[in-house]
Description:
By secondary structure, the chain is an all-alpha fold. The chain has helices at residues 11-24, 28-41, 45-51, 59-70. The N and C termini lie far apart (52 Å). The model has no long low-confidence stretch (mean pLDDT 95).
Amino acid sequence: MGELHLQNIPNEVVHRLERIARAEGVTVAAIAIRELDAASRRVDNARLLAELPDLDLPTGAIVDAVWTERR
């Protein structure tokens, strides 16, 4: 497993991470790892969207269908 050492983290960020860790009963490191994991997964979003098929649906048709379902 890799290691990452961070420096120059703004105090506000550290304090927020500490509050989250306290509330969840885990370490700041565990919270930081969880958040880094979630953030790093977003790098694949553009590629995944690009691989989706084009269904050639007009935006208006989608909006109309949503409004119909909400009524």
